[in-house]
Amino acid sequence: MFRENIISELKQKITLNPDCVDNYFNLANYYIGSDDLNNALNVYKEVLKIKPNDYQALINMGSICFYKKLYIEAIDCYIKAIKVEPDNYASYYNLGNVYAEIENFESALVNYEKALELSPERQEIYTAMGYLYQDIDNLQLSKKYFERAIDLDCTNSENYINIANIEQKLGNIEDSLMNYQKALELNPNDAKAMLCVANTYATLKNYSKAQEYFDKTIQLDSNYYSAWVCRAIAYCDDKKNSEAIMLLKQAIEIEPEKSNAYVLLANILVDEKRYEEALLVYKTVQKILINNPKISTFIANTYVMLDDYQNAVKYYKKAMKQSPKDNEIKLIYIETLNKYINDKLKGKYEN
Asked: Which domain holds residue 160?
């Protein structure tokens, strides 16, 4: 009722003074605050009927369209905004973001560079260009732009994480750890940064230190699915399968619709020769990853471990249908089929 009253009051002001765009903006802002983007968009359209060249209305419309994944409409809004204020960096920056989202990297780069030309001290533009070059695998240039963003704003922990991720890809693990730790110093309650530090210690095989940071991560967010999974992987790498199994089961409880914890759990159970348990887990994840040849192959492999070539053939055949161009699956299927036929001739299977 309260919301309806406010909207009614704002609309009444518009009725009394239909040419005052401030009233429209107030109504649009209220709709945005209420997460009613469709009505906000309609209000901005009304503004443009009164003032076709209202820069802020065009920018706001573009932002809403971008959020709603209406990329063509967003591009149209930002291009119109550029025509109204050709020297405003924000239009080019926002337009660059849209092009980057739709993977038109050349157009994104042109607009980011124009935004930088107009406003060379905006760290968010350097950050955006860092992401852009990362997306096209130019890691050195990506790192350069993230470093420039840090020069302009050394309090932004996300850019230290971005540089650390690049160092990881380049194989510079110690440098990666240093940057993750800088991010954590800036934001000690950042569970993402904490998890990155834990994973990096695990990569360095410093498992005791890794587990210390995994523990801190889970203390910050006990429902952080990735933390439970990554911690399980570290335990597995440290040859502590029982601890890994327990953690993966906890991850599954937190996010039962995500598949990777199931797959990791089943793989560990296979390594432990607990084949029947592994089959139950694989068949559960098969309901999530429907028509996934990898899971069908895992199931078939597990049946082979149990010397059950009849069921192995069944699941290799399923994998082959799911991925008909995979010659490796075909070869395994033929080999397993031959073993099944030989066993059947020996009377192992009933007709």
From this structure: 128-184
